[in-house]
Design goal:
Largest sheet: 6 strands, mixed
Distance between the termini: 30 Å
Number of helices: 20
Structural class: alpha/beta
Helix content: 55-70%
Protein backbone atom coordinates (compact mmCIF):
# COMPACT_ATOMS: atom_id res chain seq x y z
CA UNK A 1 0.00 0.00 0.00
CA UNK A 2 2.98 2.31 -0.08
CA UNK A 3 2.85 5.18 -2.52
CA UNK A 4 4.84 4.59 -5.69
CA UNK A 5 5.96 6.95 -8.43
CA UNK A 6 7.81 6.38 -11.62
CA UNK A 7 11.51 6.62 -10.82
CA UNK A 8 12.96 9.96 -11.80
CA UNK A 9 9.59 11.73 -11.48
CA UNK A 10 9.23 11.86 -7.71
CA UNK A 11 7.26 14.85 -6.44
CA UNK A 12 9.55 17.61 -5.29
CA UNK A 13 8.11 17.52 -1.79
CA UNK A 14 9.53 14.06 -1.09
CA UNK A 15 12.53 13.94 -3.43
CA UNK A 16 15.70 13.57 -1.41
CA UNK A 17 18.83 15.59 -2.08
CA UNK A 18 21.97 13.53 -2.73
CA UNK A 19 24.04 12.94 0.36
CA UNK A 20 27.59 14.24 0.65
CA UNK A 21 30.40 11.79 -0.01
CA UNK A 22 32.49 10.71 2.95
CA UNK A 23 36.24 11.44 2.98
CA UNK A 24 38.30 8.63 1.53
CA UNK A 25 40.17 8.17 4.81
CA UNK A 26 36.91 7.62 6.66
CA UNK A 27 35.74 5.09 4.07
CA UNK A 28 39.02 3.16 4.32
CA UNK A 29 38.88 3.16 8.12
CA UNK A 30 35.36 1.85 8.00
CA UNK A 31 36.41 -0.93 5.64
CA UNK A 32 39.18 -1.65 8.11
CA UNK A 33 36.61 -2.40 10.79
CA UNK A 34 35.36 -5.28 8.65
CA UNK A 35 38.92 -6.63 8.44
CA UNK A 36 39.37 -6.38 12.19
CA UNK A 37 36.44 -8.72 12.70
CA UNK A 38 38.76 -11.44 11.38
CA UNK A 39 41.94 -10.58 13.29
CA UNK A 40 43.32 -14.10 13.09
CA UNK A 41 43.20 -14.27 9.30
CA UNK A 42 44.46 -10.70 8.96
CA UNK A 43 47.45 -11.51 11.20
CA UNK A 44 48.16 -14.71 9.23
CA UNK A 45 47.93 -12.77 5.96
CA UNK A 46 50.33 -10.14 7.31
CA UNK A 47 52.86 -12.79 8.39
CA UNK A 48 52.64 -14.53 5.03
CA UNK A 49 53.08 -11.22 3.23
CA UNK A 50 56.19 -10.36 5.24
CA UNK A 51 57.70 -13.83 4.88
CA UNK A 52 56.99 -14.07 1.15
CA UNK A 53 58.48 -10.67 0.37
CA UNK A 54 61.52 -11.08 2.60
CA UNK A 55 62.34 -14.34 0.88
CA UNK A 56 62.00 -12.64 -2.50
CA UNK A 57 64.26 -9.77 -1.34
CA UNK A 58 67.14 -12.15 -0.69
CA UNK A 59 67.33 -13.02 -4.41
CA UNK A 60 69.10 -9.87 -5.70
CA UNK A 61 71.79 -10.15 -3.01
CA UNK A 62 72.48 -13.77 -3.97
CA UNK A 63 72.60 -12.70 -7.61
CA UNK A 64 75.29 -10.14 -6.74
CA UNK A 65 77.31 -12.79 -4.93
CA UNK A 66 77.13 -15.04 -7.99
CA UNK A 67 78.33 -12.23 -10.27
CA UNK A 68 81.19 -11.36 -7.93
CA UNK A 69 82.35 -14.98 -8.27
CA UNK A 70 83.37 -14.00 -11.81
CA UNK A 71 86.65 -12.10 -12.21
CA UNK A 72 86.38 -9.58 -15.09
CA UNK A 73 89.27 -9.59 -17.55
CA UNK A 74 90.85 -12.84 -16.41
CA UNK A 75 87.73 -14.86 -17.19
CA UNK A 76 88.14 -16.82 -13.99
CA UNK A 77 84.85 -18.22 -12.70
CA UNK A 78 84.33 -19.94 -9.38
CA UNK A 79 81.59 -22.24 -10.59
CA UNK A 80 81.01 -23.79 -7.18
CA UNK A 81 79.99 -20.37 -5.79
CA UNK A 82 77.93 -19.50 -8.85
CA UNK A 83 75.98 -22.74 -8.71
CA UNK A 84 75.62 -22.50 -4.93
CA UNK A 85 74.14 -19.00 -5.02
CA UNK A 86 71.94 -19.83 -8.01
CA UNK A 87 70.59 -22.86 -6.15
CA UNK A 88 69.86 -20.72 -3.10
CA UNK A 89 68.09 -18.18 -5.33
CA UNK A 90 65.86 -20.92 -6.74
CA UNK A 91 65.02 -22.19 -3.23
CA UNK A 92 64.19 -18.71 -1.88
CA UNK A 93 62.09 -17.76 -4.91
CA UNK A 94 60.23 -21.09 -4.84
CA UNK A 95 59.45 -20.69 -1.13
CA UNK A 96 58.31 -17.11 -1.77
CA UNK A 97 55.99 -18.31 -4.55
CA UNK A 98 54.42 -20.99 -2.36
CA UNK A 99 53.77 -18.51 0.43
CA UNK A 100 52.33 -16.03 -2.10
CA UNK A 101 49.92 -18.68 -3.36
CA UNK A 102 48.75 -19.47 0.18
CA UNK A 103 48.40 -15.74 0.84
CA UNK A 104 46.27 -15.21 -2.28
CA UNK A 105 43.95 -18.08 -1.34
CA UNK A 106 43.64 -16.70 2.21
CA UNK A 107 42.82 -13.18 0.97
CA UNK A 108 40.16 -14.50 -1.39
CA UNK A 109 38.56 -16.40 1.50
CA UNK A 110 38.81 -13.34 3.77
CA UNK A 111 37.31 -11.00 1.18
CA UNK A 112 34.40 -13.36 0.60
CA UNK A 113 33.62 -13.43 4.32
CA UNK A 114 33.70 -9.63 4.43
CA UNK A 115 31.48 -9.31 1.36
CA UNK A 116 29.05 -11.84 2.84
CA UNK A 117 28.89 -9.75 6.01
CA UNK A 118 28.39 -6.51 4.06
CA UNK A 119 25.56 -7.97 1.96
CA UNK A 120 23.98 -9.39 5.11
CA UNK A 121 24.11 -6.00 6.82
CA UNK A 122 22.73 -4.22 3.76
CA UNK A 123 19.82 -6.64 3.44
CA UNK A 124 19.06 -6.43 7.15
CA UNK A 125 19.21 -2.65 6.88
CA UNK A 126 16.73 -2.67 3.99
CA UNK A 127 14.36 -4.75 6.12
CA UNK A 128 14.55 -2.13 8.89
CA UNK A 129 14.18 0.93 6.69
CA UNK A 130 10.95 2.90 6.47
CA UNK A 131 8.68 2.65 3.46
CA UNK A 132 9.45 6.20 2.35
CA UNK A 133 13.03 5.19 1.45
CA UNK A 134 11.73 2.78 -1.19
CA UNK A 135 9.23 5.40 -2.33
CA UNK A 136 12.06 7.80 -3.07
CA UNK A 137 14.80 5.54 -4.48
CA UNK A 138 14.99 3.49 -7.65
CA UNK A 139 14.90 -0.26 -7.18
CA UNK A 140 17.69 -0.70 -9.73
CA UNK A 141 19.96 1.70 -7.84
CA UNK A 142 19.42 -0.22 -4.60
CA UNK A 143 20.19 -3.50 -6.38
CA UNK A 144 23.31 -1.93 -7.89
CA UNK A 145 24.62 -1.19 -4.40
CA UNK A 146 23.99 -4.74 -3.24
CA UNK A 147 25.56 -6.36 -6.30
CA UNK A 148 27.95 -4.19 -8.33
CA UNK A 149 29.23 -1.91 -5.56
CA UNK A 150 29.88 -4.71 -3.08
CA UNK A 151 31.51 -6.82 -5.84
CA UNK A 152 33.82 -3.87 -6.55
CA UNK A 153 34.78 -3.74 -2.87
CA UNK A 154 35.37 -7.50 -2.98
CA UNK A 155 37.76 -7.20 -5.92
CA UNK A 156 39.68 -4.47 -4.15
CA UNK A 157 39.97 -6.39 -0.89
CA UNK A 158 41.12 -9.62 -2.53
CA UNK A 159 43.57 -8.04 -5.01
CA UNK A 160 44.38 -4.40 -4.39
CA UNK A 161 44.77 -4.64 -0.62
CA UNK A 162 47.15 -7.57 -0.99
CA UNK A 163 49.09 -5.70 -3.66
CA UNK A 164 49.45 -2.62 -1.47
CA UNK A 165 50.68 -4.61 1.53
CA UNK A 166 53.18 -6.39 -0.70
CA UNK A 167 54.31 -3.10 -2.19
CA UNK A 168 54.93 -1.50 1.19
CA UNK A 169 57.10 -4.38 2.41
CA UNK A 170 58.97 -4.60 -0.89
CA UNK A 171 59.63 -0.87 -1.03
CA UNK A 172 60.88 -0.68 2.57
CA UNK A 173 62.99 -3.84 2.25
CA UNK A 174 64.48 -2.77 -1.09
CA UNK A 175 65.33 0.67 0.29
CA UNK A 176 67.17 -0.84 3.27
CA UNK A 177 69.14 -3.17 0.99
CA UNK A 178 70.05 -0.31 -1.39
CA UNK A 179 71.30 1.81 1.50
CA UNK A 180 73.46 -1.12 2.60
CA UNK A 181 74.90 -1.52 -0.91
CA UNK A 182 75.49 2.13 -1.90
CA UNK A 183 74.17 5.17 -0.02
CA UNK A 184 75.30 7.60 -2.77
CA UNK A 185 73.13 5.88 -5.39
CA UNK A 186 70.11 6.01 -3.08
CA UNK A 187 70.10 9.82 -3.28
CA UNK A 188 68.73 9.52 -6.82
CA UNK A 189 65.41 8.37 -5.37
CA UNK A 190 65.21 11.45 -3.14
CA UNK A 191 64.14 13.28 -6.29
CA UNK A 192 62.16 10.69 -8.26
CA UNK A 193 60.10 9.21 -5.40
CA UNK A 194 58.72 12.57 -4.13
CA UNK A 195 57.93 13.45 -7.74
CA UNK A 196 55.94 10.19 -8.07
CA UNK A 197 54.10 10.72 -4.77
CA UNK A 198 53.17 14.34 -5.49
CA UNK A 199 51.94 13.49 -8.98
CA UNK A 200 49.93 10.53 -7.66
CA UNK A 201 48.24 12.61 -4.95
CA UNK A 202 47.38 15.30 -7.49
CA UNK A 203 45.80 12.77 -9.84
CA UNK A 204 43.91 11.09 -6.97
CA UNK A 205 42.05 14.27 -6.08
CA UNK A 206 41.11 14.76 -9.73
CA UNK A 207 40.01 11.19 -10.40
CA UNK A 208 38.02 10.18 -7.29
CA UNK A 209 34.89 12.22 -8.17
CA UNK A 210 34.89 10.55 -11.60
CA UNK A 211 34.72 7.09 -10.06
CA UNK A 212 31.92 8.16 -7.73
CA UNK A 213 30.01 9.49 -10.71
CA UNK A 214 30.65 6.20 -12.52
CA UNK A 215 28.95 4.24 -9.70
CA UNK A 216 26.03 6.67 -9.65
CA UNK A 217 25.46 6.48 -13.40
CA UNK A 218 25.58 2.69 -13.33
CA UNK A 219 22.97 2.71 -10.55
CA UNK A 220 20.76 5.01 -12.64
CA UNK A 221 21.17 2.75 -15.67
CA UNK A 222 20.25 -0.34 -13.62
CA UNK A 223 17.21 1.46 -12.21
CA UNK A 224 16.00 2.52 -15.64
CA UNK A 225 16.61 -0.97 -17.05
CA UNK A 226 14.57 -2.53 -14.22
CA UNK A 227 11.70 -0.16 -15.02
CA UNK A 228 11.79 -0.97 -18.74
CA UNK A 229 11.79 -4.73 -18.14
CA UNK A 230 8.98 -4.62 -15.58
CA UNK A 231 6.90 -2.40 -17.89
CA UNK A 232 7.75 -4.23 -21.11
CA UNK A 233 4.14 -5.14 -21.92
CA UNK A 234 3.03 -1.55 -21.50
CA UNK A 235 5.81 -0.40 -23.79
CA UNK A 236 4.69 -2.90 -26.42
CA UNK A 237 1.02 -2.00 -26.03
CA UNK A 238 1.69 1.70 -26.64
CA UNK A 239 4.28 1.02 -29.32
CA UNK A 240 6.88 3.09 -27.47
CA UNK A 241 9.85 0.83 -28.16
CA UNK A 242 11.67 3.60 -30.03
CA UNK A 243 11.01 6.11 -27.27
CA UNK A 244 12.25 3.80 -24.52
CA UNK A 245 15.24 2.81 -26.65
CA UNK A 246 16.10 6.47 -27.06
CA UNK A 247 15.89 7.05 -23.31
CA UNK A 248 17.93 3.93 -22.65
CA UNK A 249 20.55 5.07 -25.17
CA UNK A 250 20.84 8.35 -23.29
CA UNK A 251 21.27 6.59 -19.94
CA UNK A 252 23.67 4.12 -21.52
CA UNK A 253 25.68 6.93 -23.08
CA UNK A 254 25.92 8.71 -19.74
CA UNK A 255 27.09 5.52 -18.03
CA UNK A 256 29.63 4.72 -20.75
CA UNK A 257 30.94 8.29 -20.69
CA UNK A 258 31.29 8.15 -16.90
CA UNK A 259 33.15 4.82 -17.18
CA UNK A 260 35.38 6.17 -19.94
CA UNK A 261 36.26 9.37 -18.07
CA UNK A 262 37.05 7.48 -14.86
CA UNK A 263 39.15 4.81 -16.57
CA UNK A 264 40.84 7.19 -19.02
CA UNK A 265 41.93 9.81 -16.53
CA UNK A 266 42.68 7.12 -13.95
CA UNK A 267 44.96 5.28 -16.40
CA UNK A 268 47.16 8.36 -16.89
CA UNK A 269 48.66 7.92 -13.44
CA UNK A 270 50.34 4.55 -14.05
CA UNK A 271 52.30 5.36 -17.22
CA UNK A 272 53.36 8.74 -15.83
CA UNK A 273 54.76 7.23 -12.64
CA UNK A 274 56.36 4.47 -14.70
CA UNK A 275 58.14 7.14 -16.77
CA UNK A 276 59.53 8.77 -13.62
CA UNK A 277 60.72 5.40 -12.32
CA UNK A 278 62.44 4.60 -15.62
CA UNK A 279 64.35 7.87 -15.33
CA UNK A 280 65.57 6.77 -11.89
CA UNK A 281 66.72 3.44 -13.34
CA UNK A 282 68.69 5.24 -16.06
CA UNK A 283 70.36 7.47 -13.48
CA UNK A 284 71.26 4.44 -11.36
CA UNK A 285 72.97 2.84 -14.36
CA UNK A 286 74.94 5.97 -15.20
CA UNK A 287 76.09 6.85 -11.69
CA UNK A 288 76.67 3.19 -10.83
CA UNK A 289 79.08 2.92 -13.76
CA UNK A 290 80.97 6.00 -12.54
CA UNK A 291 81.27 4.57 -9.04
CA UNK A 292 82.54 1.28 -10.48
CA UNK A 293 85.26 3.14 -12.44
CA UNK A 294 86.46 4.69 -9.18
CA UNK A 295 86.31 1.27 -7.43
CA UNK A 296 83.58 2.46 -5.06
CA UNK A 297 81.31 -0.48 -5.85
CA UNK A 298 81.60 -3.97 -7.34
CA UNK A 299 79.79 -5.30 -10.40
CA UNK A 300 77.85 -7.67 -8.20
CA UNK A 301 76.70 -4.84 -5.98
CA UNK A 302 75.70 -2.80 -9.03
CA UNK A 303 73.69 -5.75 -10.31
CA UNK A 304 72.04 -6.22 -6.93
CA UNK A 305 71.36 -2.48 -6.64
CA UNK A 306 69.71 -2.39 -10.08
CA UNK A 307 67.51 -5.35 -9.15
CA UNK A 308 66.58 -3.75 -5.84
CA UNK A 309 65.89 -0.44 -7.58
CA UNK A 310 63.44 -2.18 -9.86
CA UNK A 311 61.82 -3.84 -6.86
CA UNK A 312 61.77 -0.44 -5.18
CA UNK A 313 60.27 1.52 -8.07
CA UNK A 314 58.12 -1.30 -9.45
CA UNK A 315 55.64 -1.40 -6.53
CA UNK A 316 55.38 2.39 -6.64
CA UNK A 317 54.38 2.11 -10.27
CA UNK A 318 52.00 -0.76 -9.52
CA UNK A 319 50.46 1.22 -6.67
CA UNK A 320 49.78 4.02 -9.12
CA UNK A 321 48.22 1.54 -11.55
CA UNK A 322 45.86 0.11 -8.93
CA UNK A 323 45.06 3.55 -7.59
CA UNK A 324 42.20 3.89 -10.06
CA UNK A 325 40.77 0.59 -8.83
CA UNK A 326 41.05 1.80 -5.25
CA UNK A 327 39.21 4.98 -6.22
CA UNK A 328 36.45 2.85 -7.68
CA UNK A 329 36.36 0.66 -4.56
CA UNK A 330 36.18 3.69 -2.26
CA UNK A 331 33.35 5.20 -4.28
CA UNK A 332 31.49 1.87 -4.27
CA UNK A 333 32.03 1.42 -0.53
CA UNK A 334 30.87 4.99 0.07
CA UNK A 335 27.56 4.25 -1.71
CA UNK A 336 27.12 1.10 0.39
CA UNK A 337 27.87 2.98 3.60
CA UNK A 338 25.46 5.74 2.61
CA UNK A 339 22.73 3.12 2.46
CA UNK A 340 23.80 1.62 5.80
CA UNK A 341 23.78 5.10 7.34
CA UNK A 342 20.22 5.83 6.25
CA UNK A 343 17.91 6.19 9.27
CA UNK A 344 16.07 3.02 10.15
CA UNK A 345 12.38 2.91 10.86
CA UNK A 346 11.76 4.69 14.15
CA UNK A 347 12.02 2.32 17.08
CA UNK A 348 8.90 1.39 19.02
CA UNK A 349 8.14 3.61 21.97
CA UNK A 350 9.63 2.53 25.28
CA UNK A 351 6.17 1.88 26.68
CA UNK A 352 4.88 0.17 23.52
CA UNK A 353 2.57 -2.75 24.20
CA UNK A 354 1.88 -5.86 22.13
CA UNK A 355 -1.52 -5.64 20.51
CA UNK A 356 -3.20 -8.88 21.50
CA UNK A 357 -6.75 -10.26 21.36
CA UNK A 358 -7.67 -7.60 18.81
CA UNK A 359 -11.34 -6.73 18.39
CA UNK A 360 -10.80 -4.28 15.52
CA UNK A 361 -12.23 -1.02 16.85
CA UNK A 362 -10.35 1.66 14.86
CA UNK A 363 -10.51 5.43 15.26
CA UNK A 364 -8.72 8.32 13.59
CA UNK A 365 -9.07 11.61 15.45
CA UNK A 366 -7.96 15.03 14.15
CA UNK A 367 -5.33 13.52 11.87
CA UNK A 368 -2.95 15.98 10.24
CA UNK A 369 -0.48 14.52 7.76
CA UNK A 370 1.90 15.39 4.95
CA UNK A 371 4.74 13.44 3.40
CA UNK A 372 6.86 16.43 4.39
CA UNK A 373 5.89 18.78 7.26
CA UNK A 374 5.58 21.78 4.95
CA UNK A 375 3.24 20.02 2.48
CA UNK A 376 0.14 18.96 4.42
CA UNK A 377 -2.25 16.85 2.32
CA UNK A 378 -4.61 15.77 5.14
CA UNK A 379 -5.47 18.84 7.24
CA UNK A 380 -7.99 17.41 9.73
CA UNK A 381 -9.43 13.92 9.39
CA UNK A 382 -11.76 11.98 11.69
CA UNK A 383 -12.97 8.43 11.16
CA UNK A 384 -14.60 5.71 13.23
CA UNK A 385 -14.61 2.02 12.22
CA UNK A 386 -16.42 -0.10 14.84
CA UNK A 387 -15.20 -3.64 15.40
CA UNK A 388 -16.55 -6.05 12.79
CA UNK A 389 -17.65 -3.33 10.38
CA UNK A 390 -16.79 -2.96 6.72
CA UNK A 391 -15.51 0.47 5.82
CA UNK A 392 -15.16 1.38 2.15
CA UNK A 393 -12.89 4.24 1.12
CA UNK A 394 -13.76 5.90 -2.20
CA UNK A 395 -12.73 8.99 -4.08
CA UNK A 396 -10.89 10.28 -7.10
CA UNK A 397 -7.35 9.10 -7.85
CA UNK A 398 -4.96 11.01 -5.62
CA UNK A 399 -7.65 11.94 -3.12
CA UNK A 400 -5.75 10.22 -0.28
CA UNK A 401 -7.32 6.75 -0.08
CA UNK A 402 -4.02 4.86 -0.01
CA UNK A 403 -2.58 7.44 2.38
CA UNK A 404 -5.19 6.40 4.95
CA UNK A 405 -3.99 2.80 4.68
CA UNK A 406 -0.37 3.95 5.04
CA UNK A 407 -1.34 5.67 8.28
CA UNK A 408 -3.34 2.72 9.62
CA UNK A 409 -0.37 0.40 9.09
CA UNK A 410 2.13 2.96 10.43
CA UNK A 411 4.10 3.01 7.21
CA UNK A 412 3.98 6.74 7.88
CA UNK A 413 3.17 8.60 11.10
CA UNK A 414 0.91 11.66 11.16
CA UNK A 415 2.16 15.08 12.23
CA UNK A 416 -0.85 15.45 14.52
CA UNK A 417 -3.82 13.56 15.86
CA UNK A 418 -4.32 10.05 17.22
CA UNK A 419 -5.01 6.72 15.54
CA UNK A 420 -6.18 4.03 17.93
CA UNK A 421 -7.00 0.33 17.76
CA UNK A 422 -9.20 -1.00 20.56
CA UNK A 423 -8.54 2.24 22.42
CA UNK A 424 -4.74 1.91 22.20
CA UNK A 425 -2.82 4.73 20.50
CA UNK A 426 -0.86 2.92 17.78
CA UNK A 427 2.12 5.17 18.55
CA UNK A 428 2.38 3.13 21.75
CA UNK A 429 1.86 -0.26 20.12
CA UNK A 430 4.65 -2.35 18.62
CA UNK A 431 4.67 -2.17 14.85
CA UNK A 432 5.00 -5.93 14.53
CA UNK A 433 1.86 -6.66 16.51
CA UNK A 434 -0.03 -3.85 14.76
CA UNK A 435 0.81 -5.03 11.26
CA UNK A 436 0.18 -8.67 12.11
CA UNK A 437 -3.32 -7.61 13.12
CA UNK A 438 -4.06 -6.83 9.46
CA UNK A 439 -4.37 -9.12 6.47
CA UNK A 440 -3.85 -7.39 3.14
CA UNK A 441 -4.75 -7.97 -0.48
CA UNK A 442 -3.33 -5.34 -2.80
CA UNK A 443 -4.16 -4.49 -6.37
CA UNK A 444 -0.51 -5.10 -7.25
CA UNK A 445 0.04 -8.78 -6.50
CA UNK A 446 3.34 -10.10 -5.16
CA UNK A 447 4.47 -13.70 -5.32
CA UNK A 448 7.96 -15.07 -4.74
CA UNK A 449 10.01 -17.95 -6.11
CA UNK A 450 8.60 -20.99 -4.38
CA UNK A 451 5.73 -23.44 -4.40
CA UNK A 452 2.08 -22.44 -4.44
CA UNK A 453 1.80 -23.88 -0.93
CA UNK A 454 4.66 -21.66 0.31
CA UNK A 455 3.14 -18.57 -1.27
CA UNK A 456 -0.29 -19.10 0.31
CA UNK A 457 1.24 -19.95 3.70
CA UNK A 458 3.58 -16.93 3.58
CA UNK A 459 1.83 -15.00 6.35
CA UNK A 460 1.35 -18.00 8.63
CA UNK A 461 4.50 -20.09 9.16
CA UNK A 462 3.70 -23.66 10.11
CA UNK A 463 0.34 -23.69 8.31
CA UNK A 464 -0.92 -27.20 7.55
CA UNK A 465 -1.99 -28.48 4.15
CA UNK A 466 -5.58 -28.60 5.39
CA UNK A 467 -5.50 -24.91 6.33
CA UNK A 468 -3.93 -23.91 3.02
CA UNK A 469 -6.42 -26.00 1.07
CA UNK A 470 -9.36 -24.47 2.97
CA UNK A 471 -8.10 -20.96 2.18
CA UNK A 472 -7.63 -21.84 -1.49
CA UNK A 473 -11.18 -23.25 -1.66
CA UNK A 474 -12.57 -20.08 -0.13
CA UNK A 475 -10.68 -18.05 -2.74
CA UNK A 476 -12.05 -20.26 -5.55
CA UNK A 477 -8.54 -21.28 -6.66
CA UNK A 478 -8.35 -24.85 -5.26
CA UNK A 479 -9.74 -26.54 -8.36
CA UNK A 480 -7.25 -24.74 -10.60
CA UNK A 481 -4.32 -25.69 -8.35
CA UNK A 482 -5.29 -29.37 -8.34
CA UNK A 483 -5.27 -29.42 -12.15
CA UNK A 484 -1.59 -28.44 -12.19
CA UNK A 485 0.93 -31.29 -12.62
CA UNK A 486 2.37 -30.86 -9.11
CA UNK A 487 -0.69 -29.39 -7.43
CA UNK A 488 0.17 -27.31 -4.38
CA UNK A 489 3.86 -28.15 -4.88
CA UNK A 490 3.92 -26.43 -8.28
CA UNK A 491 6.91 -24.10 -8.35
CA UNK A 492 6.22 -20.49 -9.31
CA UNK A 493 8.85 -18.54 -11.17
CA UNK A 494 9.76 -14.97 -10.27
CA UNK A 495 6.64 -12.94 -9.43
CA UNK A 496 4.47 -15.81 -10.66
CA UNK A 497 4.99 -15.09 -14.35
CA UNK A 498 3.99 -18.64 -15.28
CA UNK A 499 0.36 -18.06 -14.16
CA UNK A 500 -2.19 -15.46 -15.19
CA UNK A 501 -2.69 -12.14 -13.43
CA UNK A 502 -6.13 -13.20 -12.23
CA UNK A 503 -4.76 -16.42 -10.76
CA UNK A 504 -2.03 -14.49 -8.97
CA UNK A 505 -4.70 -12.27 -7.45
CA UNK A 506 -6.63 -15.32 -6.27
CA UNK A 507 -3.49 -16.73 -4.62
CA UNK A 508 -2.91 -13.48 -2.71
CA UNK A 509 -6.57 -13.54 -1.62
CA UNK A 510 -6.10 -17.10 -0.36
CA UNK A 511 -2.98 -15.91 1.50
CA UNK A 512 -5.05 -13.22 3.26
CA UNK A 513 -7.81 -15.67 4.05
CA UNK A 514 -5.34 -18.01 5.74
CA UNK A 515 -4.01 -15.33 8.06
CA UNK A 516 -6.07 -15.24 11.25
CA UNK A 517 -6.28 -11.44 11.50
CA UNK A 518 -9.12 -9.40 12.94
CA UNK A 519 -8.69 -6.60 10.41
CA UNK A 520 -8.52 -6.75 6.63
CA UNK A 521 -7.25 -4.27 4.05
CA UNK A 522 -8.49 -4.84 0.51
CA UNK A 523 -7.17 -2.54 -2.19
CA UNK A 524 -9.40 -3.27 -5.20
CA UNK A 525 -8.71 -6.94 -4.54
CA UNK A 526 -10.89 -8.30 -7.35
CA UNK A 527 -9.78 -5.92 -10.09
CA UNK A 528 -7.90 -8.62 -12.03
CA UNK A 529 -10.54 -11.34 -12.20
CA UNK A 530 -13.51 -11.84 -14.46
CA UNK A 531 -17.06 -10.94 -13.42
CA UNK A 532 -18.16 -14.49 -12.66
CA UNK A 533 -15.12 -15.18 -10.48
CA UNK A 534 -15.55 -11.80 -8.83
CA UNK A 535 -19.09 -12.69 -7.76
CA UNK A 536 -17.83 -15.97 -6.30
CA UNK A 537 -14.98 -14.22 -4.46
CA UNK A 538 -17.28 -11.55 -3.12
CA UNK A 539 -19.51 -14.26 -1.62
CA UNK A 540 -16.48 -16.01 -0.08
CA UNK A 541 -15.16 -12.73 1.23
CA UNK A 542 -18.42 -11.80 2.87
CA UNK A 543 -18.18 -15.04 4.81
CA UNK A 544 -14.51 -14.36 5.60
CA UNK A 545 -15.16 -10.79 6.67
CA UNK A 546 -17.80 -11.65 9.27
CA UNK A 547 -16.73 -10.37 12.65
CA UNK A 548 -13.70 -8.57 11.22
CA UNK A 549 -13.02 -4.91 10.63
CA UNK A 550 -12.45 -4.44 6.92
CA UNK A 551 -11.08 -1.47 5.02
CA UNK A 552 -11.87 -1.64 1.31
CA UNK A 553 -10.37 0.77 -1.19
CA UNK A 554 -12.76 0.66 -4.10
CA UNK A 555 -12.78 2.19 -7.56
CA UNK A 556 -15.81 0.26 -8.81
CA UNK A 557 -18.51 1.54 -6.51
CA UNK A 558 -20.80 -1.35 -7.35
CA UNK A 559 -18.57 -3.63 -5.22
CA UNK A 560 -19.06 -1.74 -1.95
CA UNK A 561 -22.80 -1.10 -1.83
CA UNK A 562 -23.15 -3.45 1.15
CA UNK A 563 -20.46 -1.75 3.23
CA UNK A 564 -21.46 -0.70 6.73
CA UNK A 565 -19.90 2.69 6.16
CA UNK A 566 -18.55 4.42 3.09
CA UNK A 567 -15.95 7.16 3.54
CA UNK A 568 -15.82 9.61 0.64
CA UNK A 569 -12.34 11.16 0.47
CA UNK A 570 -11.66 14.38 -1.35
CA UNK A 571 -8.40 16.38 -1.19
CA UNK A 572 -7.24 14.41 1.85
CA UNK A 573 -10.39 14.92 3.88
CA UNK A 574 -13.55 12.88 4.44
CA UNK A 575 -16.30 15.00 2.93
CA UNK A 576 -19.12 12.45 3.25
CA UNK A 577 -19.70 9.21 5.11
CA UNK A 578 -22.59 6.84 5.56
CA UNK A 579 -24.23 3.83 3.93
CA UNK A 580 -24.69 3.58 0.18
CA UNK A 581 -28.40 4.36 0.32
CA UNK A 582 -27.91 7.30 2.69
CA UNK A 583 -25.18 8.83 0.54
CA UNK A 584 -27.23 8.41 -2.61
CA UNK A 585 -30.14 10.13 -0.88
CA UNK A 586 -27.90 13.11 -0.07
CA UNK A 587 -27.28 13.49 -3.81
CA UNK A 588 -23.83 14.88 -3.07
CA UNK A 589 -20.28 14.07 -4.16
CA UNK A 590 -20.66 10.30 -3.71
CA UNK A 591 -23.84 10.29 -5.75
CA UNK A 592 -22.09 12.11 -8.55
CA UNK A 593 -19.22 9.56 -8.46
CA UNK A 594 -21.65 6.65 -8.52
CA UNK A 595 -23.80 8.05 -11.29
CA UNK A 596 -20.76 8.84 -13.42
CA UNK A 597 -19.88 5.12 -13.47
CA UNK A 598 -23.31 4.01 -14.61
CA UNK A 599 -24.36 6.71 -17.03
Amino acid sequence: VSLRWEAGTLPSYIRKEPRMRQPKSKVLLRLGTYLMRHKGMVFAALMLTIASNLLALVGPTLSGYAIDAIEPGKGAVIFEQVFYYCFLMAVFYAASSVLSYILSALMIYLSQKIVYQMRKEVFEKLADMPVNYFDTHQTGDILSRISYDIDTVNASLSNDLLQICTSVITVVGSFIMMVRLSPPLVTIFFVTVPASILFTRYRTKKVRPLFHKRSEKLGELNGFTEEIISGHKTTKAYHQEATMQSRFDQKNEEAVTAFYNADYYGSITGPSVNFINNISLSLVSVFGALLYLFSKISLGDISSFVLYSRKFSGPINEAANILSELQSACSAADRVFQLLDEPSEKADAADAIVLDHVRGDVKMENIRFGYTPDKIIIPDLNMVAPAGSTVAIVGHTGAGKTTLINLLMRFYDPQGGVISVDGHDIQHVTRKSLRLSYAMVLQDTWLFNGTIFDNIAYGKPGATMEEVTAAAKAAKIDSYIRKLPDGYQTYLSEDGVNISQGQKQLLTIARAMLLDAKMLILDEATSNVDTRTEIQIQAAMRELMKGKTCFVIAHRLSTIQNADRILVVRDGDIVEQGTHSALMAQNGFYASLYNSQFQ
